[in-house]
Amino acid sequence: MSNKKELHEIFTPTKPARLTFVERDKINDKLVNSLRTPGKQLIVYGHSGSGKTTLLVNKLHQLYEFHITTRCMQGITFEQIILDAFDQLNPFYTEEIKSETSINVSAEIKNEYLGIKTKINSSFSEKETSVKKRVLPPQLTPQALAKFIGETKACWVIEDFHKVDEEYRTLLSQIMKVFMDMADDYRTLKIIAIGAVNTARLVVKYDREMNNRVSEIMVPLMDKVELKEILVKGETLLNIKFPDEIKNLIIHYSNGIAAVCHNLALNICISLNINETVEKEIEVIHDSFEKALKTYIDESSDSLKEIFDKALKLEKQTKFDNYKIVVKALSFFQQDGATKQEIFQQIKKEDKKYPSSNLSFCLDKLRKEERSELIKFDEASGKYSFYDPFYRVFALVYFKNVVIKQTRKKNVYDEIPEINLVEKMYSQILEELKKVKGDLKLSG
Ligand SMILES: Nc1ncnc2c1ncn2[C@@H]1O[C@H](COP(=O)(O)OP(=O)(O)OP(=O)(O)O)[C@@H](O)[C@H]1O
Ligand SMILES: [Mg+2]
């Protein structure tokens, strides 16, 4: 076969998929329209791992000549964000890119850019002795930045904007406003702010008057059909065959999270020594799925421990070990989770006096980053479930091995004794697989 592809370019659990990119039909039209509409600003949001970055990387590749991307970290200041964008434009305003592109920046704007660059550099060297902090010169206004970006026919992607301090989120909306107003001069100019959150307003705070010039796009977790397409694309590219049963198992264990799907498929190929497109079609056998599962658990067990420690830690001296009670109750349910009421009933079986307000509070907290985003909530079904299906397996094993001590009026969970988590999780999964396989066959 002449067109060999590397395994790591096909199944990509830790980077945006390109070769196996699956179109997101439910939101594609809205996204493409917004990207094409001059002056339209975008806020793209959704669960971590839902595929925001991948979707944008692929769509911008199709629709835009250039884009610049600023990644936000906790504590980043607004000045740093602006300076980052400014720096990334540098190649367009020096000789570097000129020859390969159709971009033609006017001499006047180029001089303005270089002038500001000199200012920034000199402010930097003046302060070099103390703190190395670059200062935003007054000339680098939002209008100026918009002009510099607009001239290059690029758009500006700001990743993980939810990490930016709240005070700056209104500032961004003001810059968006400037970008809107300059769309007459620069038709491609726009900001795309991305955040791993439940609502667009948590990404950017903006005024009502901007409503119809800002497009809010929610990227949902993947459905079964989309996940299957990743596997089908991978099969074709590698010249291998996943039997339907294995496809169904991978999809089942991915539970909407494409990264898990990529990861399991990758591990299967590795266990079969497939590193690139094979000459003669290989059919994947069941054994390799189980091996892949084990590898996956093995690789994630340390981080799973950390995730759970963060999610379950005791806040202060409270009557109930709240987080453990709630998570334990949730683990009794199937992967698609349970409603608040159902979880409450489950808790009551063990503790009749548990207040429902504690449950509400914990469910809320457990959806947040501060508690590892251990669970998610599905609006459509009204159910809470573990964010990652392997969290549920971990929880099951964890609570099977944890002892509850009664000390005076309190229930205290004793820390998990040293057990072999990997082995236990693995046998838990195999046990479940026997059941699931039957169900998957029935459902199709
Ligand atoms: N449309 C898609 N087709 C194929 N694979 C995808 C698709 N979208 C996402 N993936 C895969 O899913 C994983 C997560 O995707 P991505 O990083 O884009 O999510 P995200 O929403 O940006 O996450 P975060 O909020 O953590 O930044 C990656 O392994 C990526 O390759
Ligand atoms: Mg991302």
Helix/sheet category: alpha/beta
CATH superfamily of the largest domain: P-loop containing nucleotide triphosphate hydrolases
Main sheet makeup: 5 strands, parallel
The number of helical segments is 18
Beta content comes to: 5-15%
CATH top-level class of the largest domain: Alpha Beta
Distance between the termini: 33 Å
Mean of all residue-level pLDDT scores: 88
CA gyration radius, whole angstroms: 25 Å
CATH topology assignment of the largest domain: Rossmann fold
- The level of helicity is 40-55%
**Low-pLDDT residue intervals, each spanning 5 or more residues:** none
| Count of DSSP strands | 11
Instruction: Note the run of SSEs as H and E.
Output: HHEHEHHHHHEHEEHEHHEHHHHEEHEEH
Shape from CA axes?
globular
- Widest β-sheet, arrangement of strands: 2-3-4-1-5
Total domains: 2
The CATH architecture of the largest domain can be given as 3-Layer(aba) Sandwich
Hetero groups in this structure are: adenosine-5'-triphosphate, magnesium ion
